[in-house]
Design goal:
8 helices; about 35% helix; transport; ATP hydrolysis activity; four-stranded antiparallel β-sheet; binds adenosine-5'-triphosphate; globular; Rossmann fold; single chain; alpha/beta; ATP binding
């Protein structure tokens, strides 16, 4: 039997050195400067302190909502949990199969067709070959791309990439589900279908970590809330305790 899912984050810090002036970094730098997060590391490079000494323990049954204003560190924390970013300090332990819905096109190869991407994802996730036809049928049917499924992903519209990315990401059920709020994008008809599929996945997962500005989603799905502020945990508790504190502070988006 598989071990129960568990996540332990101990004193984790993440810094982003700012090397160059691309418009994306510049925008991030301005946000960071405004919130007093710029500093220098040991090599005297300018850095953004995205997460500072974060502690968190999650076990089977936890449904966590990450809240906080823009730039608070929600996406960074999700990416640390997914293994995309490595902390500069602290320790992370993750036990259990994990699926991260962080970016719709993550892990997709634009040169391959939709169908080829489905097969690749199945193999990458270690599915036996005998299960690939079922995966292919499930994803192709759900994404509803008709003949486009046999054309390269690079010619898809943004909405089509989201459909395929969503269908792929939700085809394989993990013990730990990490979710950023991109999954709430998409056209209305698709969202209705998407929400049902997502709800099944959320119910099936042992641990959910969800980052969102939509409090209705937190209230509906989460049993615990962590409020991040300037890269630190400001509050951690039941939604009915933490949300009123959070919503009582001046917000740009809530
Ligand atoms: N690649 C990067 N390079 C430099 N700084 C970054 C980078 N990614 C994030 N940051 C900075 O790290 C901090 C945390 O950003 P993060 O994206 O985790 O916030 P967030 O809570 O997800 O915000 P939002 O709600 O706006 O998505 C911000 O100050 C941001 O400017």
């Amino acid at each position: 039997m598989a071990l129960q899912a568990r996540i332990e984050v101990e004193d984790v810090s993440v810094l982003f050195p700012l090397y160059h002036g691309s418009s994306r970094s510049l925008k991030k730098m301005v946000v960071a400067a405004a919130s007093g997060r710029l500093g220098k590391d040991q090599q005297q490079r300018v850095v953004v302190r995205a997460l500072q000494n974060v502690n968190l323990r999650l076990s089977s049954g936890d449904r966590l909502g990450l809240v906080g204003t823009n730039g608070a560190g929600k996406t960074t924390l999700l990416r640390v949990l997914a293994g995309v970013y490595e902390p500069v300090a602290g320790r992370l332990r993750v036990q259990g199969s994990l699926n991260a819905l962080l970016d719709p096109s993550l892990g997709m190869n634009a040169e391959l067709t939709g169908r080829e991407n489905i097969l690749l994802r199945g193999l990458y996730n270690g599915l036996p070959r005998s299960m690939l036809p079922r995966l292919e049928e499930d994803v192709a049917e759900f994404a509803g791309l008709a003949d486009f499924i046999d054309l390269p992903v690079r010619i898809y519209s943004a909405g089509m990439v989201i459909r395929l990315g969503f269908a792929l990401a939700t085809a394989i059920r993990p013990q730990i589900l990490l979710m950023d709020e991109w999954f709430l994008a998409g056209d209305a008809v698709f969202m209705e279908k998407a929400r049902q599929r997502l709800e099944e996945m959320v119910r099936g997962a042992e641990i959910l970590v969800l980052s969102t500005h939509q409090m209705s989603v937190v209230r509906e799905w989460c049993t615990r809330v962590v409020w991040l502020e300037q890269g630190r945990v400001r509050a951690d508790g039941a939604p009915e305790e933490v949300l009123p504190q959070y919503l009582g502070t001046p917000l740009e988006m809530a």
